[in-house]
């Protein structure tokens, strides 16, 4: 199950689990759309491809909440 990290690792932008606009690699490194574009859709941590993260909504989100651990190191 995806961890659904709450923020962009590069700029700290909030990325709610129930909204689009987040991009992840296969290790779940998470970035906003602007940062993913700036990095040519490549993860700076592993070099992997960044793809759209699916949203988690409704009962699925209530039963399996998103992570609250922030990864932005600012």
From TrEMBL:
It comes from the Bacteria. InterPro entries: DUF1272. Pfam families: DUF1272. This is DUF1272 domain-containing protein. It comes from Sphingomonas dokdonensis.
């Amino acid at each position: 199950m995806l961890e659904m990290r709450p923020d962009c690792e590069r700029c700290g932008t909030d990325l709610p689990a129930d909204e689009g606009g987040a991009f992840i690699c296969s290790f779940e490194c998470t970035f906003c759309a602007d940062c993913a574009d700036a990095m040519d859709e490549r993860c700076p941590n592993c070099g992997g491809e960044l793809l759209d993260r699916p949203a988690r909504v409704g009962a699925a989100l209530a039963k399996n909440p998103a992570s609250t651990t922030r990864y932005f190191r600012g």
